[in-house]
Write a structure and sequence with these properties.
Elements (H helix, E strand, L loop, with lengths): L1 H22 L14 E5 L30 E5 L7 E2 L2 E2 L8
Antiparallel strand pairs: 1-2, 3-4
């Protein structure tokens, strides 16, 4: 009976420790699990899948008219934009001419 109480206590303390770690944005090994920084990447969004800024005649999110539209951007993890390859070239951090 005492063994069950100890086991239940250990389990409860473990669950509490895991909850504290998650609340701090770190996993149990101390690695950061917070949401990564994002950046605007132009020329990588599919038609209608942009996050904003799709040029003249459009209002904002989801309004790009063509795949990989040069003046439409999508949020991507910071540092990955210029390595994204599309059929029209690489992603860029600044709007391009269509």
């Amino acid at each position: 009976m005492i063994t069950r109480n100890i086991a239940a206590s250990v389990f409860t303390l473990g669950a509490l420790a895991a909850g504290v770690a998650l609340a701090q944005g770190k996993d149990m090994a101390g690695k950061d699990t917070a949401k990564p920084a994002m950046e605007k990447c132009y020329g990588v969004a599919l038609a209608g899948k942009n996050d904003c800024a799709a040029g003249p005649g459009t209002t904002c999110a989801g309004t790009s008219k063509t795949d990989y539209q040069a003046n439409a951007w999508k949020n991507v993890p910071a540092g990955t934009c210029t390595t994204m390859k599309t059929p029209k070239g690489m992603g860029t951090l600044t709007p391009m001419k269509s």
